[in-house]
Amino acid sequence: MEFRKIEFLSRLKRIVCDACFCIFLIIALCFAFAKAANPLTTAFYSADAAALVHNDSLFIFAGHDEQGPQGNNNKAFVMNDWHVLVTDDMEHYHDYGAVLSVKTFKWANASAFAGHCEYRNGKFYWYVAIHHGTIRENGSEGFAIGVAVADHPSGPWKDAIGQALITDNTPNDVKLNIDPAIFYDGNDIWMYWGSWNAGRRVKLKENMIELASTPEDIKIKDFFEAPWMHKFRGNYYFSYAAGYPSTTNYSMAPTINGPWTQKGVINDKMENSETNHQAIFKYLGHWYFMYHGANSPGGWTYRRSVNIDYLYYDRDGNIQKIKRTSGVDPVNNALVEAGGYRMVVSHSNLALEDSEGMVVQQTADEKNEAQLWVLAHGDSARYYTLQNFKTKKYYCPPTTLLDTVKTSTKACEIRIENASVTKGYYLFADYDSDYLADVLNVSKDAGMPLITWVRTGTDNQKIKLVKTDLPKVEPPKDTSKVTPPDSGNGDLTGLGSVHAAEALLAKFAVYDGAARVIRLTQNAKWTLLDVNGVVVRRGYGREINVRSVCSGMYFVRSGARIAKVVLW
Q1: Which residue has the higher pLDDT, 549 or 73?
Q2: What SS3 class is residue 197?
Q3: What is the architecture, at CATH level 2, of domain 339-467?
Q4: CATH 2.115.10.20 residue ranges in the chain?
Q5: CA distances (Å), 217 to each of 173, 202, 205, 279, in order?
Q6: Structure confidence at residue 567 as a pLDDT band (50, 70, 90)
Q7: Is residue 305 scored above 80 in pLDDT?
Q8: What integer is the mean pLDDT of 62-88?
Q9: Exposed, middle or buried: residue 308 (CB in 10 Å: 0-12, 13-18, 19+)?
Q10: At the fourth CATH level, which superfamily is domain 35-310?
Q11: pLDDT for the residue 474
């Protein structure tokens, strides 16, 4: 009896230990995946990824390599489905799983090769390359391009047209119809694809599932496969795999029709992987370069993994050589909360100060009100105003490179995006051109000014926004002598206190608490201010959206009229 008891306890101990080990392993794998760097995941082998930014989330549409370990009998791509991953911080990636497969397309029989998804008309359209079950010309591999459609990237996905969009029977197709990529150029919808040194493009109809033209040659001399098109500073960029084993090269043109100037290699050949397949996209103020390599355990040419690194341009718009790293910095995509801040430069730990109309970095001084800034939301998301608490002037960067950042009595809206969770924010002077605030010469010296320069990702361009309580404005002793506000600058400095302001209030604004909207009696230029007289927002119209404004007492000013509004 005692022996059986010991045996039972021994077995129980082994079961518990095995269970604990399994739980530990699962947690470790989940944590490793959740805290993904490069590669993005080791949970499965991934390749040929495309990117889609939608509603401030980044969706990644990736192929799935299922080939076995490296060996002479495994020299082929084994791919049967596609995964979708999503992130909103470039650190934690959620895998929706294999949401689309070859089986979705009844006319196809194998090979879930590279695809590209775009959003239009309220739907998601996913263009993928697959072996056609019946159509195959002599000398080709029988690949076709199909289209799947869904209401959300997680699916469910279905065949959008019940047949292939491009096959070997399509006029002027190529022998290897793979690697579709969609590009919007105004109202025109283009699809690029091709391999074996032959690339094509074709216009699509607005419905996204019909051709609007005959395929035409892309006319890029060193093109091999993996086309990708994007636009920046008015120029068109066509990137692609060149040669085999491949590098990633790009060409540049002033129009979508050329003439194309070959610019050379931006991503070198991959170690232990013959293919090079890229996606270039902008997300939350950063330009990124996504590609696959063989850097997961057991990885090789037919077992690849998706990586993401930064992409930078020089002052002339040329793409800089990609530096492959262990991963990009995590970001916070939440809107910046309105209120008081100290702005501290990441590389020098000095505070930004309004010094005689110029923004400079200075030794931090908590008593120096010229180092206090009031951040308010602009007229559109991710655009803000920064008003200096002491001088009442606004941060107003020039769009000319190498020019200093100055302050102005007139409000200037700027784009602010999180550069790094730990190192701060980018203050953009020209968001579309990738121009932003930069401490001159990467200096750590006090008194050095901010200038406008191209985004390089260095720490002298990263500004920490340190939330700070603003000093309270003391009311005057004799409120009967308070003068009306200055109509020129739109603030309430002259009112001095809430009690003094009440004598001047006009009933022309009504607050709708349910909708979080202030409604005026007529269209007018208006200014929303806090109790300290600091401008929160400006605009024109009959409605003031205050969903992003904190609860409390505010004033609405229009011309000489002022109304008190209490938000809750």
Answers
A1: 73
A2: coil
A3: Trefoil (2.80)
A4: 35-310
A5: 9, 9, 19, 21
A6: confident
A7: yes
A8: 97
A9: buried
A10: Glycosyl hydrolase domain; family 43 (2.115.10.20)
A11: 60
